Amino acid sequence: MPEPLGHSRRGSALGFTLAAMGAGTFTGTLGGGLLGEEFGWPAIFWMRIPIGIVLLIATIIGLNQSYAGAVHDRVKKRFDLLGSAILFTSLFTFVLGLSFARVDGWLSPLPITLVITSGVLGLIFAKGNKTGNFTILPIGLMKFPGFKSGAGSNFLITVASFVMWFLFPFYVTDVMGRSVLTLGALLALMAIMNLIGAGVAGYLADRIGDRLITFIGAMLTAIGLAVAGTQGSNPEMLSVILATIVIGVGFGAHQAAVYALTLRGTAPEHAGSTAAGLTVSQTIGTVVSIALMTSLLNWQQSINERSFAEAYQNLYLIAGGIAVLAGAIVIKKQSNIVNGTININSNPE
Q1: Worst-scoring range by mean pLDDT, 245-249, 311-315, 344-348?
Q2: CA-CA distance, 202 to 35, in Å (whole number)?
Q3: Does domain 13-40+145-349 have CATH number 1.10.40.60?
Q4: pTM (two decimals)
């Protein structure tokens, strides 16, 4: 998407792309709420089959267009099957280890073994990538402008915000006593706010800076999570709606800006690998969020005998703190300024 618009409008292109994803999430959550209310939750999964078929056909057609061709003047290389297998296995065992840790306990033999295996494979891949034996990722990816701070921020904001997808539904249905349709409407509202936040943030990132907009998006997400975490067992619907709106706008703004930050200084031939790195950071963040937050939830309820609403409040405040960290790590100090002025301009360096 960014290539046809050029380097200077990359934020707008990415904002438009993420806004389209927000529109899809909005349609899916609202439609899922209606299907669940009328036909039961299995209908939600059955409905994915025709949607997947249509998506497959559209993808096949789209990949045959001229704009989907390879990068010009790129040297063709053999696909790195071994490096891909090692990297995939490393990530898979890490995710699997976190999943088992949530169920069996963090100090159980199986999760520890899986995480150690993941670490060993990760070191093997890193060494092979550094020597040029594994080429699935470009050498020096971590040194690409904005990649480390962008991927780290993306990971943290996902850890923080994903509570809206696996804890918020229980809060709405069990604590607030609302229907599945109401839950679907709230999640759809958050999705449409993602759309708006991403679209506006992409435009602004091109004009006033990727880092600044990423920071603002993370702070809005933190504020929304803090508001949601202070509602207690008798929440006002208006306050819940307000928190949902702020979280949606903040997360959407952060996503558009952090992708622009990470990809703006990336060479076209490495854009796919860099974007994949961001996606992996988000995927790992999702798993960490579920494993960490559910473990903390169970600990509070079993050890401290707190109610779900009380534990929910604490978790959302913790999530808000993590969102603040997601914004903080994209702030960069100017090394050539004596007074240590903070640099949050559009330069991804």
Answers
A1: 344-348
A2: 33
A3: no
A4: 0.78
